[in-house]
Design brief:
With 78 residues, the chain is of the alpha+beta class. Helix content is 47%, strand content 13%. It has a three-stranded antiparallel beta sheet with strand order 1-3-2. Strand 2 and strand 3 form a beta hairpin. Helix 1 packs across helix 2. The protein is globular and about 35 Å long.
Length: 78
């Protein structure tokens, strides 16, 4: 398998990615489009997920503060 040039070979788990997404959502005012989250993950971690809605679904499952928003959006509530 080829080394990912964007991550420099580092592996990231949900323990690092999920809290970063929640913090990003708080900074953006609570409700964020999944495309913005995808761009954030790429800029911060160098990872581009093919299906970002799977990532957001898993985040909503693991963190009760994150809820479903409009289609294509998720929001964080305190």
């Amino acid at each position: 398998m080829n080394k990912n040039i964007y991550t420099d070979g580092k592996r990231y788990g949900k323990e690092e990615i999920h809290p970063a997404i929640v913090e990003f959502m708080k900074q953006k005012g609570g409700e964020v489009s999944h495309k913005d989250v995808s761009d954030f993950i790429f800029n911060r971690f160098g990872i581009r997920f093919g299906e970002i809605h799977h990532v957001m679904w898993k985040l909503r499952q693991n963190d009760s503060r994150v809820t479903k928003g409009r289609p294509g959006y998720s929001r964080v509530v305190e």
